[in-house]
Amino acid sequence: MQFELSKEQEAWRRLSQEFAVKYIAPTVQERDEAEEFSRSLYDELGLLGLTGICFPEKYGGRGGDCLSYILAAEELAKVDDSLAVSLSASVMLCQWPLYQYGTEDQKERYLKPLVEGRRLGAFALTEPQAGTDAAGQQTTATRQGDGYRLRGNKIFITNGGEAETYVVFAMTDKSKGIKGISAFILEKGMPGFIFGKTERKLGIRSSVTRELIFQDVYVPGENLLGAEGQGFKIAMTTLDGGRISVAAQALGIAQAALDYALAYAKQREQFGKPVVANQGISFLLADMATRVEAARLLTYQAAAARDLGKSCAKEAAMAKLFASDIAMAVATDAVQIFGGYGYRREFPVERLLRDAKITQIFEGTNQVQRMVIAGALLKD
Ligand SMILES: Cc1cc2nc3c(=O)[nH]c(=O)nc-3n(C[C@H](O)[C@H](O)[C@H](O)COP(=O)(O)OP(=O)(O)OC[C@H]3O[C@@H](n4cnc5c(N)ncnc54)[C@H](O)[C@@H]3O)c2cc1C
Predict the structure, then answer these.
(1) What cofactor does this protein call for (predicted)?
(2) Residues 246-304: tens digit of each pLDDT
(3) Which of 219, 110, 108, 106 is nearest to 169 (CA)?
């Protein structure tokens, strides 16, 4: 196993870090307060190439690997997890299935503008009655002529309303269960495709989460992604990659919380000495740092497994489960080290704690990750 980053991976990491610190950090607190998504910052990520790191040059990408993208996501999440979430939804949940399952025509039409950062993407699986039980899709796609009519709604969709391109799952044949689910490419502006409630959230407040409503939306047959009935497989393999990206977000949040807590503990004095001089605090920091490093290894290992083209469902689930749990724990400990100041909105650890929670919930709750890991153990 190689523990050194390649020159290319290190370059993506540094580029993302420098951009995040210089251009994203100055407005992060303000956008969180205003609950405002910044499309112009997203566009900048596209210009830098971050939306295309792990896609071939043929489709407008940079021909890099998944680990390079994960390093970029971690650096963005250190500064602004909301923006890292928007990027992840577009890159890992929309672009990836288009690349993996799309026809050449679909790649040219839909994938390329996303990879180049000229469009934003979204992934729509969750419904009011189909959350953890994603197989229980109620949205239907009924054949009509050469295409389909979509009816139903999706909730909690990251980038909803802001995105131009959507990978949407719907039931084409209820009698076939999960084999009756298909995936479709929808575009903002299709007649009958409208946007509902925007969620007001605990954290990642400057990432948009919105309801999608399909009122007899006509979707041409050429917008079927993969084969009819392949939708559930497309959703699950897409989420494997998405979970590594969530692990990277959690890792970034945890690293940032640790960095802030360490700096604060060195400068805050009580009883005539810095609070870090107390073992109660320095041992806490030692545990936080150890957890962060362990999460980093699991996350990079999952990305490396994906780069080898191996099935990485178990590795992705382990990375997401562990990194998100430690992000919550480390952010909580960071607030504790800040004392009362950590509870105030002016200090970033308050936001990090709120942002950390979602990493335990989306792209399959951590209960689901345990199901995936246990399933793999029982199969081995
Ligand atoms: C901010 C945000 C962004 C999101 N972005 C997207 C997106 O872009 N696209 C998308 O499709 N979805 C998205 N989601 C949806 C997210 O993936 C779901 O919320 C998540 O999968 C859980 O579904 P649920 O909320 O319906 O919870 P439920 O399924 O109702 O679960 C409730 C609780 O029961 C537990 N539970 C359920 N079944 C079991 C079981 N069999 N065994 C043990 N425990 C169980 C769950 O773990 C959870 O703790 C987003 C959600 C949020 C909050």
Answers:
(1) FAD
(2) 999 999 999 999 999 999 999 999 999 999 999 999 999 999 999 999 999 999 999 99
(3) 219
Using CA atoms, how far apart are residues 297 and 72, in angstroms rounded to an integer? Answer: 16
Domains annotated for the chain, with CATH where assigned, are 7-119 (1.10.540.10), 122-232 (2.40.110.10), 239-379 (1.20.140.10)
Name which of 203, 256, 337, 214 is nearest 78 in CA terms: 256
- Between the CA of 96 and the centroid of ligand 1 the distance, in Å, is 21
Average per-residue pLDDT in the chain?
A: 97
CA distance 302 to 78: 20
Phi, psi of 113 (to 5 degrees): -60, -30
Half-sphere exposure of 243 (CA within 13 A, CB side): 32
Q: Atom 25 (ligand 1): residue with closest C-alpha? A: 131
Which residue in 28, 46, 27 sits closest to 90, CA to CA?
Answer: 46
Is residue 211 part of the annotated active site? The answer reads no
Count the alpha carbons within 13 Å of 328 in the hemisphere toward its beta carbon. 12
Tell whether ligand 1 has an atom less than 6 A from the beta carbon of residue 361: yes
Token pair recorded at residue 270:
């009580």
Residue 135, ligand 1, Cβ within 6 A? no
pLDDT in tens, 308-322: 998 899 999 999 999
DSSP letter for each residue of 27-55: HHHHHHHHT---HHHHHHHHHHTGGGTTS
Distance 74 CA to ligand 1 centre (A): 23
132 lines ligand 1 (CB under 6 A): yes
Q: With contact defined as beta carbons under 8 Å apart, do 253 and 332 qualify?
A: no
Beta strand ranges found along the chain (DSSP E)? 121-124, 140-144, 147-158, 165-171, 181-187, 193-198, 209-220, 224-225, 269-270, 273-274
